[in-house]
Amino acid sequence: MSYYGKGAIEVKSAGISKGSLDWEAANAMMEAVIDITKYTSKSIDEIKDFTPDFVIILSAEAEQAKGMLTGNPLIIVHHFPITPAEPTVSEAFYRALCNEMENFCFDFVNEHIKKLI
After folding, report:
1. pLDDT band (50, 70, 90) for residue 44
2. Of 60, 72, 74, 114, whose CB neighbour count within 10 A is largest?
3. Given this model, what pLDDT does residue 40 score?
4. What are the percentages of helix, strand and coil residues in the chain, rounded to 5?
């Protein structure tokens, strides 16, 4: 999102609770030339003073936190697939997920932030 919205958007990311870096996800992102290894997981409590224009909810669990939001943001719900338990499919899964997320981010910025095409 930051890449496509560069100079026109401030992106904050948080979850219901803090987590640790998923190295398989990081490897898939590296293949797409996006380094997420320096990002840290934040909980929604850590960004409570931020008043967003948009909130993108990525999971059913996160939908429960809508009441914790400040302001009156446009809420967009887009559930991405959940990581499969079988390690044999995870590499392909993360590559496909990375592509899906990139397409979503491009489309979101193009529609809501600035025209890219």
Report:
1. confident
2. 114
3. 86
4. 40, 10, 50
In sign, the C-alpha dihedral spanning 58, 59, 62, 67 is positive
Q: How far is CA 48 from CA 2, 37, 39, 60, 105, in A?
A: 20, 24, 18, 20, 23
pLDDT digits 0-9 by tens, 61-96 = 888 888 888 889 999 999 998 888 787 778 889 999
How far is 48 from 113, CA to CA, in rounded Å? Answer: 22
Q: How far apart, in whole angstroms, are the C-alpha atoms of residue 103 and residue 30?
A: 16
Rounded to two decimals, the pTM is 0.85
The alpha helices in 2-111, defined as continuous H runs, are 23-31, 60-63, 87-108
- Spatial contact of 1 and 29, defined as CB atoms under 8 Å apart: no
| Segments making up each domain of the chain, as ranges | 23-49+89-113
